[in-house]
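Reagents: none. Just compute today. PilZ domain-containing protein.
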Amino acid sequence: MPRRATAQTSQQNIIPTGAEKRRHLRYPVQYRLRYTGKIGSRYVRGEGVLVDVSLEGCGIQGSCPVEQGHELTLQIDLPLKKLAVTLNRAVVRWASGGRFGIESS
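Predicted 3D structure written out:
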């Protein structure tokens, strides 16, 4: 009887790309927010939508462009009891068009 070929992959041989680089799962959400910060000599003020969250960060679709490495303050509107959460010192880790990712500590 002929042997069937099987694919075996060692965990050490897998090089993460794209979403596989993430250490934590991201969960889709839809919360309105506002963000402010200083980029160089100008102040940024925008509105947007929190589109996903993880243990260490979040993804945002915003109205005002930001740049990687800049620090923002986020005010997130939660639907329960009309509560707003403020997140200070959130660092932009990537930005592309109106979309950007935030890491918070």
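The CA atoms of residues 68 and 94 lie 5 Å apart.
Action item: order primers for follow-up constructs.
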